[in-house]
Amino acid sequence: MKIIERSVEISHSLFQQTYEERDGYRTYHFAFGWYRNTLLAIGKNSPNSPNSRALKFAKKFNSTQIIKYPFLHAEVDLISRLWGRFHINNRLKVVIVRLNKFKQLQNSKPCSNCSRVLNTLGVNRLWWSTKKGKIKGSNSC
Ligand SMILES: [Zn+2]
After folding, report:
1. Cα(98)–Cα(8) distance, rounded to whole angstroms?
2. Which own/partner contact pairs does 133-136 have at CB distance under 8 Å and 24+ positions apart?
3. Cα of 5 from ligand 1 centre, angstroms
4. pLDDT for 102-136, tens place per residue?
5. For the chain, what are the domain ranges?
6. Which CATH architecture describes the domain 2-137?
7. Dihedral angle computed from the Cα positions of residues 60, 92, 109 and 9, in that order, rounded to the nearest 10 degrees
8. How far away, in angstroms, is 108 Cα from ligand 1 center?
9. Strand pairing report for 135-137 and 92-100
């Protein structure tokens, strides 16, 4: 499917810049928000420092674990970028890609906190990369 291939391609193209900005990350996590075939926004993880947007969304969605450790996950970064700009519902398609520092696909299935945020908003068309270098989906497109 086109949006998945494009998400993986864009992840690879963003990798170098992100790698240089954020030397030392073990994984590079990107979340792509699509409406039909239009890319609306891209979220990135930010695991090295606590983040005020992570905290804001954790409070909004009552994610106690994130309130304690407010590091920004790519999925929540994506939602925060769409927030107030687009109506977030089940028409939004989210593709999550995680690369290791060798640019290989890794498991990017959303954690329970991110899953709850996405579920609460009705976002259930999700695809994520797996360690075997494939993309899995919760739904057909
Ligand atoms: Zn998460």
Report:
1. 9
2. 133/104, 133/105, 134/105, 135/4, 135/8, 135/95, 135/105, 136/109
3. 22
4. 889 999 999 999 999 999 999 999 999 999 989 99
5. 2-137
6. 3-Layer(aba) Sandwich (3.40)
7. -130
8. 9
9. unpaired
